[in-house]
Amino acid sequence: MGESSSDFLVTGMDPAIAVVLGFLAFVAALALQLRARRYNAWLYWFAVVMVGVFGTMAADVMHVALGVPYPVSTAFYALTLAAVFVVWQRVEGTLSIHAVDTTRRELFYWAAVVATFAMGTALGDLTAYTLHLGYAASAALFAVLILVPAAGYRLGWNPILCFWTAYVLTRPLGASIADWMGKPRDSSGLGLGDGPVVAVLGLAIVALVAYLAVTKSDVQQGESADAPDPALR
Question: What superkingdom heads the lineage (predicted)?
């Protein structure tokens, strides 16, 4: 949804205004999440959605406005993500999301998520445009790659490594699927349009988050949904 929402906003209004609005919404969503003393599915997933939208804009600005090639922007955000992980590990001693129980650790988490979404956007564009794979082939590539950490987890690989590898790959996978559905046929898409894709995926997210809010199935067994700072558990 972040990919299509960003493209829809940037093409529907002045790009500079769209980026500013996206940044303000991102800051507001993150502020609400960080101020929440108890886990709230709506607040958490609103923050994730806005990270997706602004992360896409951050990656696109580097290419469209600054003329940075996709390989360079992908490498830049990959190094940024690696730096976040290195500092997070050295400061906190773990990258486990099950240990995100302080504000500082949550800030590290969101920094990693923002870098992930920006890098994933650039990476998806790299495979689709620079490598000329197109959207469908790019989606298929990342769908195969995301099976690697899934299989590795079953084989006993480090669970934290498997989680973050899979998390990083969800972004180029999702972005490639969204572009494939929304972009014109002459650009290897289905031509459905960014607006309809945003509407369908937005409704899907609302329905899924409503389910989580009601069932609380995203809260670990043995943990209270009213416990402080459990949003990332």
Answer: Bacteria
Q: Are 218 and 41 in contact (CB under 8 A)?
A: yes
pLDDT at 229 over 80: no
Given a contact cutoff of 8 angstroms between Cβ atoms, the answer to whether 50 and 110 are in contact is no
Which has the closest alpha carbon to 172: 200, 206, 207, 133? 133
Q: How many CA atoms lie within 13 A of 193 on its CB side?
A: 5
Find out whether 17 and 65 touch, Cβ atoms under 8 Å.
no
Q: Is 228 helix (H, G, I), strand (E, B) or coil?
A: strand
**What does the domain layout of the chain look like in residue ranges?**
2-215
- Report the helix count and the strand count for the chain, using DSSP H and E: 9, 0
Q: What angle do CA 21, 23, 24 make, to 5 degrees?
A: 65
pTM summary value: 0.86
